[in-house]
Predict the structure of XdhC family protein.
Amino acid sequence: MTEDDPLEVAARWREEGRKVAIATVVDTWGSAPRPVGSHLVIDGEGAFEGSVSGGCVEGAVVAEAAEIAAGAPPRLLEFGVADETAWEVGLSCGGTIRIYVEPLEAAA
């Protein structure tokens, strides 16, 4: 990951012919470290740019998004302390985060 704008990176990747998904924070509660509207872009090989949680759930989101970039349907991901993955993904400090992941289509 670099410090480039995730949407600019996604545009470059699309120009290169890569399949790309975009993950967007759509809702938070409690101690979520990234605000609603934050983006993470992921290509079909698992390369990524941006952040949706400051490292708490990026690994889980990247894995889901790589599948979506490769053709799986979009989905809404939810992580939180009440979720069975809370300790696995690092939101043990509290709160919830909802992230919508969808393919990023090429510009017409």
In short: The mean pLDDT is 83.
